[in-house]
Amino acid sequence: MIKKLKAIVLLVGIYYCPEGLIAQQKIGIFDNHTDIGQVKHAGFASYDKSNQTYLVGGAGSNMWFNKDEFHYLWTTVQGDFIVRAEIELIGKGVDPHRKVGWIVKNNLDNDTKHVNAVVHGDGLTSLQYRKNVNGNTLDLLSSQKAPDVIQLERKGNQYIMSTAKFGEPFTSVTLDSVQLDNEVYVGIYVCSHSADIIESAKFRNVRIIKPADEGFKPYQDYIGSRLEVMDVATGHRKVLQSTSHSIQAPNWTNDGTKMIYNSKGRLFQYELETSQITPLETGFAINNNNDHVLTFKGDKIGISNHTKDEGWNSTLYYLSVKGSPEPIRVTKPNAGASYLHGWSPDERKMIFTAERKDQYDLYSVEVATGKETQLTNFKTLDDGSEYSPDGKYIYFNSARTGKMKLWRMDPDGKNQTQLTFDEYNDWFPHISPDKKWIVFISFPKDIPASDHPFYKQCLIRLMPYEGGTSKVIGYIYGGQGTINVPSWSPDSKKIAFITNSKIK
């Protein structure tokens, strides 16, 4: 018998866990899938690696009272987390209470304690929970109806369900004092609410995020990073690279073959076709921050390097996009801290945020001579400047009206006009090459207007180039380093950006 068991282990990769013997079957970011409870029809789960989407089908009579029946695609997580997915129930369905969502469980029993962020087939949205083994299920109803974005966050014994119809901000429901284990099962599921049938759902942009610890020290304590690409028209995202260290601010090269990002003061090239990563030669400039920008022609890259002989102030240089051992200095010695954000289309000027006269304003500088021209003059912060592709305007963000909002001005600083007006703090406007769109990042309402910190729940938003109503195209955990620099693809169809999570 022992020999037979060993043979089975070798053939199907069985391992022992507290729930018994379970076939090891990694599916995307999840460890396995299984039916929970005594379902009449076996469910299924699959992962499409090419577009990073999941398909889950499940039967089950209900997820209520003291017993649950559903199909579960799961992994295990310790401590706090944020999980998020965009969901689509397939077909009209049979029962209006078919269910889809995220569920957190102590184990794989059907009567265990759990917290369940659920959307019903008829649009009912609730945060369900069972506080005791074999106890009845309770719920908190959301005012949201039929969302297609579901997020569940754990902070100690508190659970926050946030839902949205894609394109809109979140609506949240908070549940306090549910005692689950530190290590829990977490995953997506489907329940048909009818024992005799199987219902199914698609899941895209599925993320499991381990946030930064409370009290982390910015610019000292870093967590992992994901390099992502989004199709702007649909909001569909793909993770290109996951790493346990900090990478920031990807540029897309003009030939569409590479990304350039910074990490630990140096620049790196990511080859889209091969996923190969190579350093970009920057010579002595090895203390670069994330303010690096390619020219519109794509032949040069400007950098902001912290220079030792100037008290580690950020200083502007440029070099060939292919790399160079001798970057060329632009800002003059001891001019003050300078943070690059854009090039003029003719490559004769750079625009940047400068610490001058005891405040931070926007300046332009002649690349050939280092002559500076002040463009804004406010005690509050102006930042994130970028030329439009035709050179007619400079777009930027400013806190002069209380919140950090997007603005536009003429290249000489005249006709400064506010573009966004809602309660968010908006940073880093980036203009699509075809001059149709502005993409930007919005920080939470409670963040100080002049701050753009690491490791926050932010929104990537899109608005028409002429201004007008913006919509959400990305729900992210990130912030500083996510989209500080221009990152549109040359064909204006995609953007690149960084999100964050602790990664093993």
Notes on the protein architecture:
β4 (44-48) and β5 (53-58) form a beta hairpin. With 504 residues, this protein is mainly β. The protein has 2 domains: 29-209, Jelly Rolls; 225-500, Neuraminidase, CATH 2.120.10.30. Mean pLDDT is 94; it is low at 1-23. Helix content is 2%, strand content 48%. The strands form 10 sheets. Strands 3-8-17-10-11-12-13 form a 7-stranded antiparallel beta sheet, with no helix packed on it. A 7-stranded antiparallel beta sheet has the order 4-5-18-9-14-15-16, with no helix packed on it. Strands 21-22-23-24 form a 4-stranded antiparallel beta sheet, with no helix packed on it.
Helix-strand blueprint:
Layout: H1 2-12, E1 14-17, E2 20-23, E3 32-36, E4 44-48, E5 53-58, E6 63-64, E7 67-68, E8 70-78, E9 81-89, E10 99-105, E11 114-120, E12 125-130, E13 138-141, E14 149-155, E15 158-164, E16 171-175, E17 183-191, E18 199-209, E19 225-231, E20 237-243, E21 248-252, E22 258-263, E23 266-271, E24 277-279, E25 293-294, E26 300-307, E27 313-320, E28 328-329, E29 338-343, E30 349-356, E31 359-366, E32 372-374, E33 382-387, E34 394-398, E35 405-409, E36 417-418, E37 425-431, E38 437-443, E39 456-464, E40 471-478, E41 494-500
Antiparallel strand pairs: 1-2, 3-8, 4-5, 5-18, 6-7, 8-17, 9-14, 9-18, 10-11, 10-17, 11-12, 12-13, 14-15, 15-16, 19-20, 19-41, 21-22, 22-23, 23-24, 25-26, 26-27, 27-28, 29-30, 30-31, 31-32, 33-34, 34-35, 35-36, 37-38, 38-39, 39-40
